[in-house]
Amino acid sequence: MAPTIDEAERSFSGKRVLITGAAGFLGSHLCLRLSKAGASVTGADNLSVARPDWASLASQNGFETVPLDIRHGEEVRRGMAERSPEVVFHLAAVANPRACKQDFPLAFDVNVVGLENILRHAPATSRVVFMSSAAVYGAPERLPIDEGHPRKGSDPYSVTKIIGEDLAGSYKRNYGRSVAIVRNFNTFGVGQAGDYIVPQLIRQALTEGRMELWDPSTVRDLMYIDDTIDALVQVAASEDAGPINLGTGRGTTVGDLAAMIGRKVGGSLPIVDLKKKVVGSPALVSDNGRLQRLGWSERVGFEQGVDRTITWSRAQLAGAKA
Fold first, then answer.
1. Among 139, 151, 144, 221, which residue's Cα sits nearest to residue 185?
2. Is 130 a member of any domain?
3. 255 within a domain of the structure (yes/no)
4. Domain total for the chain?
5. Sign of the CA dihedral running 30, 82, 181, 130
6. What is the three-class DSSP state of 257?
7. Relative to the CA of 228, which of 31, 104, 238, 304 has its CA 20 to 30 Å away?
């Protein structure tokens, strides 16, 4: 019988854990969760994209932070040797598809060379969880998308993740490493900033009273951050090598998402269709059966997650004005 999320979390008590990309959205939430579970957490990041409250977050919650640029093998070797982590969550990446397209050499160095440095220098006995992406599937042949779906992603971001998956698989097959590949669909929630779809629409609704969409028919599988962290913890506590889809199995059009945000923020707000082609797949919905078999189930849910994110966004804007 698969362990519950609470049982999976308890298994981390006393374990040494290293998280790359720790100062980002996913990484910071994972640092907090595992610190509270009693793990000895090291949050590693080069701080190129970091939460503004990262330093205070770490000091208030008692986990270590270390500056680390994963592109530099010697830095990674030294960091691993000093801490001997039992579990490594490799979340660091250039994760914005448009940014990857604009600077492919940087995306390759971070997403491919950086991963190889992690795999090479992590302790041979450690469990490594590699964050890939649903972008590897490209335009889907079928929905929902199961892990056996062909990898047809061809944009620069997708290509770096496909290469990364092959690297991780090679380390498992040739060197007997415990590596798990997870394919994240679309995580949103408190603490997310930038031009990701949910915070972008909420920010527009709150500050401009209208929302602009590239293509309202785009479909995404939107999972709240707490549920994604649940999934990462359960994958790491298992022996499953993946690939494992991280998604809810529920598709939502961007148009419906915008309409929901409009209703919650202040009634029916104008929605402007910019009629632009999105970067990446027009539709991504997961078949998450493999994840559910590990004991995962959605605990927060979509609408409650949107409510929490709007409340947080209002507070952030109020703080900025003050």
1. 221
2. yes
3. no
4. 1
5. positive
6. helix
7. 104
For residue 184 the two structure tokens come to 């994240």
As a whole number of angstroms, the distance between CA 181 and CA 118 comes to 14
Q: How far is Cα 280 from Cα 189, in angstroms, rounded to an integer?
A: 21
Q: Directed axis angle between helix 225-237 and helix 25-36, to 10°? A: 60
Domain assignment of residue 174, yes or no: yes
Alpha-carbon distance of 180 to 288, in angstroms, equals 16
**How high is the pLDDT of residue 187?**
97
Q: Which residues of the chain have pLDDT under 70?
A: 279, 321-322
Q: What CATH number should be reported for the domain holding residue 41?
A: 3.40.50.720
d(CA 60, CA 119): 31
Instruction: Specify the pTM.
Output: 0.95
Residue where the block lists tokens 């939460």: 51
Q: What confidence score (pLDDT) does residue 118 get?
A: 98
pLDDT of residue 322: 62
Secondary structure (3-state) at 130: strand
The answer to whether position 270 is within a domain reads no
